Amino acid sequence: MRDLAKRIQHTNVAPDATAADIGRLCSECLEYGFDAAVVNPIWASHARKILRNSGVKVCVALNFPTGGSTTLAKVVEIRNLAAMGVDEIDFMVNVGYLKSGMLDPFREDVEEMVRAAEGMTVKAILETAVLTPEEVRVAAQICEESGVHYVKNSTGWGKGGPATVEIIRFLRETVSPKVKIKASGGIRDAKTALELLSAGADLIGSSRSVQIVSGVETSSLTTSY
Hints:
TIM Barrel
């Protein structure tokens, strides 16, 4: 169970999440040994206080889930989150730029996010379900060239769609080994999580993390990626 838990980022980015909900999320991270707690920006400081010196990281979902914030707004927020001690940023790329063929603004936006993060781990959420295969390829390659550490398939909200073995394999084939893959969206059981890890995912993002690890035996963790 612990081997799988270390590959899961336990998530609560619901708009109605309360301080008590975030406290519970962090407590479950500590109890089960999840890699990180993923929260909305307003809960970053709260999560940091609970998880300080525990080894569990704090990850913030930014520009989430619609991807419509301006570059300046995101830069300011990232710098504020860095000052709070946040470890990682999962940011939604501006899909509208990509779908419009505005690749220069798209690239500049991603580059500014990486630059503002000042050493924090940066994961770019591509929202692959609304993109063509070529758009996914272009977006992933631009993100790699811009210095992101991970590409992530989906927010798991709205049109984001679930993580599938096919899209994770496609992402793994598209970026170089120096860029990691985070799978997210609709991951509710150990079987699905293990299949995605075997397909090339390095991390799993889920709000059903406890459910996932409660249904797996450590002996089943034989992934190759």
